[in-house]
Amino acid sequence: MKITYKSSLQRTMIIYFIMIGLASSFVGAEFVMDVQRQELRTELRHNYEKLIESKMQPDEAFHPIQQIKNKAILMVLIIFVVVIILLTMFIKNITEPLQHMIEVSKLIATGDLSQTVEIRANNELAEMGNTINDLTSNLQEMILLSKVTTTTSKRFMAKVSELLEAQQTDQSRVEDLRHEMRILSSQNKLLNEIILSCKFYGIAR
After folding, report:
1. What does the alpha-carbon distance between residue 108 and residue 127 come to, in Å, rounded to a whole number?
2. What's the mean pLDDT when you consider all of the chain?
3. 43, 79, 78, 88: which is closest to 61 by C-alpha?
4. DSSP label of 201
5. Helix (H, G, I), strand (E, B), or coil: what is residue 5?
6. Cβ neighbours of residue 34 under 8 Å, at least 6 residues apart?
7. What 3-state class would DSSP assign to 4?
8. Do 144 and 120 meet the contact criterion of CB atoms below 8 Å apart?
9. What is the per-residue pLDDT across 114-173, written as a single tens digit (0 to 9) for each?
10. Going by C-beta distance under 8 Å and a sequence separation of 6 or more, which residues neighbour residue 38?
11. Nearest to 192 by CA among 128, 142, 153
């Protein structure tokens, strides 16, 4: 799942709200201008006079108002369509990447460190995804180092046990054990440095 963005999340949200504001302002201004038209007032006054003189039917007299009502309904529908389009864009550009990161994070929490967040972007969502990927990579390195250290320790202990059981002082085997000890010591030192560089939850005292 790869998602591409061209703008930052904050800029995108601002653009969405500006577009909604512009659409609402345009519709509102258009409605006010229609209502405030001098021609509308003149036409309604003439229709009212004709209605009093029984020269016009009520439906015909209030036809200008009916036109404004229909136009208002059309404007509301336009705003509704704009909101639907922006909502779809919001879901596509923001909600889907967030859901993707949540699903990947859940898999990582269960121990599947092979998962990565694949969001190519230049916004806050991409930065969050990269942070999750860095965290997963660091965890993999720590676990692999721990695994190698454990394997080395088991191999070293097996050789020591074998040497003790044989009750021999073969110099070559002793040198081999010393080499294993140096490797194990180096791995333990590296692992200890990594652990010391981490911060853990403290217990209040």
Report:
1. 18
2. 77
3. 43
4. P
5. coil
6. 40, 68, 71
7. strand
8. no
9. 888 887 777 778 888 888 889 888 888 888 888 888 887 777 777 777 766 666 556 676
10. none
11. 142
103 φψ region: left (φ > 0), alpha (ψ -120 to 50), beta (else): alpha
Pairing type for strands 3-4 and 119-120 reads parallel
CA 118, distance to chain mean position in Å, is 11
Rounded to a whole number of angstroms, the CA Rg of the chain reads: 37
Question: Please, which residues bridge with residue 120 across strands?
Answer: 4
Q: HSE-up of 14 (CA within 13 Å, CB side)? A: 5
Structure tokens at 118: 């694949």
What is the Cα–Cα distance from 50 to 184, expressed in whole angstroms? 106
The confidence score (pLDDT) of residue 179 equals 79
Q: How confident is the model at residue 194 (pLDDT cuts 50, 70, 90)?
A: confident
Residue with tokens 């405030």: 36
Listed in sequence order, the residues at least 6 apart from 90 whose beta carbon sits closer than 8 Å to its beta carbon are 16
User: 183, 152 in Cβ contact below 8 A?
Assistant: yes
DSSP designation for 7:
S
Please say whether the beta carbons of 46 and 67 come within 8 A.
no
- 166 token code pair: 């044989």
